[in-house]
Write a structure and sequence with these properties.
Length: 334
């Protein structure tokens, strides 16, 4: 099933909140028509599973301040649509046979250029935090107790002062208003639903939207109590219903979940197709919204008292703080 989204490109939910250093924030917004002048520095990450690669480089030949800093380009092979399949399986596609054994053939196909698109995501200029985030790094599974959250994580969030202005721009309709799929502007239970950067809007098989809550005092799943049940149920019901209405994907075909740790500390909910396996939907990070609601119904303070596991990556300042805390703990109560 496909959806015409030419006027509704994926939302820039690119987690650009990591930019906190003014030296990386340019007042110039260059227009890109080609990658002319881009010089590849190194490959940060590649994924055969998602058919994607992350490249660090820089642009030369322009006079902007941003030209002297690094850029990141994420290249991804796009999903096939039924219309494209009809265009590819024609005499316009050249075949290069790699091998043949009885009835089995393996080819490299060279379809017409208009059917050979590659999705490109550009972060320009890119900060050191962006480069760290998109690099291949060793991962560790951390068990975060309630005490560790209060002693380490919460302090880290407060000290880091993550920039959420891009989120507030969406909530205030200053940016991306034309991409909103559904909105409920109630100050307590409202949210805005729009396509995520990871979705190319070409097919519902890889559907990915994000619901951003209107309330600005909820950082993550750790803050949720019974007070927030009306909000969570409203997002669960109205968000899924709007996706069913617009894209024809039934609620039972949607994966609706939260991340912990989140990529940015303003509560948001992920809506993806069950056919799609996006980064972060695994058990180390994803918490189904339906389970979150049930847990809070059982005990209002469930997420304030429970231990939560999450992934941390090599070089992450938060991981270093955990190691320091554990090393300084003399009684082992962590």
């Amino acid at each position: 099933m496909t959806e015409n989204c030419e006027s509704e490109k994926p939302s820039k939910i690119a987690k650009l909140d990591d930019i906190t250093n003014d030296e990386f924030v340019s007042k110039i917004s260059p227009s890109f028509e080609t990658f002319e002048g881009f010089q590849v520095k190194r490959i940060l990450k590649e994924s055969p599973e998602s058919r994607s690669i992350v490249v660090e480089g820089s642009f030369s030949g322009d006079n902007s301040v941003a030209s002297v800093s690094s850029s990141i380009v994420i290249l991804e092979k796009t999903h096939f649509t039924e219309k494209e399949v009809h265009g590819i399986l024609t005499k316009s596609t050249a075949l290069q046979c790699l091998f043949n054994n009885d009835v089995y053939y393996n080819f490299l196909c060279h379809p017409p250029i208009q059917l050979n698109e590659v999705k490109a995501t550009l972060i320009h200029p890119a900060s050191e935090k962006h480069i760290e985030k998109f690099s291949t790094r060793k991962s560790f599974l951390i068990e975060e107790t309630a005490l560790i959250y209060q002693s380490v994580t919460l302090l880290h969030i407060r000290e880091s002062k993550f920039d959420l202005q891009w989120v507030y721009n969406i909530l205030e309709h200053k940016k991306e208003a034309d991409r909103i799929v559904y909105e409920d502007l109630d100050p307590d239970c409202g949210f805005i639903l729009l396509p995520d950067l990871k979705w190319d809007c070409r097919s519902t098989s890889n559907l990915y939207l994000t619901g951003i809550v209107c309330k600005r005092d909820i950082k993550s799943i750790r803050d949720l109590t019974s007070e927030h049940l009306p909000l969570l149920k409203n997002i669960f019901d109205k968000g899924s219903a709007s996706i069913t209405k617009k894209y024809g994907l039934d609620k039972s075909e949607q994966r609706i979940y939260l991340h912990y740790q989140p990529s940015y500390y303003h509560l948001h909910i992920h809506f993806t197709s069950l056919q799609f396996t996006p980064p972060g939907c695994n058990v180390e990070r994803a918490h189904l919204l339906s389970n979150v609601i049930r847990n809070i119904e059982l005990k209002s303070s469930y997420y304030q008292e429970s231990s939560l596991d999450f992934l941390a990556f090599e070089g992450d300042p938060l991981l270093k703080k955990y190691h320091q805390y554990i090393g300084l703990s003399s009684d082992g109560d962590y």
